Amino acid sequence: MKKRGIYLTLLSVVTVAAICFGTYVHEGRLVLNTSNGNFSFSFDSGGSHKTKKTTDAFSSVQINLRDADVIFASGDDYSLTYTGEKTTFPSYKVDSKVLTVTDPASGKKLTGTLTVTVPDSLTEMDALTVSADNGDTEFDVKQNLAVHSVNIDSQNGDIVFDAGQGITIHTMDLSSENGDIDLNSSESLPVDTAALSSGSGDITTDNIRFEKSGISSENGDIDISGAGDLSAYTFHLSGGNGDISIGDDLYSGSLEAGSKITAGEGQKEMALSAGNGDIIVEN
User: Fold this and answer.
1) Model pTM greater than 0.70?
2) Of all helices (H) and strands (E), which one includes residue 60?
């Protein structure tokens, strides 16, 4: 019995040690926090270190990161801020007003968040191109800014476009294989030409005015609101497995998979297709 008791004790110790080691690997070291006579434990992964580097001025951005999240924001200067492991920072350069950002040349994996900042005084940009294989991408700019082209490709991440007043975009191409696409603006945001596509995710827009657009989701809903006067549009609808509602009287119902119809006779054009999801368009 003693041997059995010792064995069980050793087994318990080994099990606890394994759990602690696994937790350390995935969550970081255990830290004791004290405040006002109270205490608590938390995990410090070592991945919350913030490093900021100012850059030369740029008017175009090309980002290609495999596993990091990307935020595009406005602030006081041209800079890059990486929040993650202390010893890592993406490779970058500014050449002919083009900022290029890639994973570190060392090959070390970036899993944190990169924030690209432009000054509030910037009024025009040529291009914003982001390729984030396994990370989210967020556009969070509130200033008056005209962007000629926005191209964001995320294999396994969400795309969030949160714009303030005064943003205008000529061409927009957003795609995510496994993530949602969410566009919203505090005021009407005009986009001349747009292509939005999601393999497995919802697409939602609010207060975005497209002149010509193609929006598709294989496995998710499409919800367009604040698009303006819907009589100004011609809608090209492709059916799948879901309901379709365009305004109050342009179209309401469902289509068989593979079938297509046209609703409206406006100058603006919007092509909508959902393989397995609903389509809703509202004023």
Assistant:
1) yes
2) strand 60-65
